[in-house]
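Progress against Task 2.4 (sequence-to-structure conversion) is shown through the following example record, which the project officer requested during the mid-term review.
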Amino acid sequence: MTLPNLAVRIVVEDGLPYRPASWHLWRDSRVFVPFATIQNWVEAGGKKAQARLDTAFLDWALADFSGSVAADARYDGPFGMLSAVANRRYKRLLYDVLDHDPTHEDIRAFLRRLHTALAARALPLRGMTTDGSPLSPPPFKCRLFS
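C-alpha cells generated for the chain above:
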C-alpha cells in the first residue's frame, strides 16, 4: 500500500484527525508526513477511498448485523466525516468525507444511503445511537428516509 493510500485509510476509515494520523505514520513507518499533506491527500483521495466500500464489503459488514447502529460526525478544519458503525461488532458500515462541515441535509442523505443498504438486504434498523448534536435528526420515524 502506498503512503498516500495508507494516510487516507488512517483518516477516513479509522477516523483519526490529521495530526494524530501524521504521528501514526511516523510511529509505524518512520516516515514524517506533515498533517497538511495528509489533509491534501484525503481531500483528493477521500471519494476514491469511499468507492472501495462496494457491495462485497457491505455484505461482509452486515453478515451478522444486530439492527443497532452508531452514527457520528467528525469535524477537522474545513472537512467533515460522517460514519455509521454496527454497534455489536464495531464494523464500519458506511462513511462519507465532506469538503465542508456537515449540514443537516448531508446527514439526512447519509442516513438514506444507510437505509438503502439495509433495505437491499432486508435488514431492519432497530436502533441508532448518535452524539445528540443539533445536527442529529429527531427521533426516527419511518418517513425520515423517504
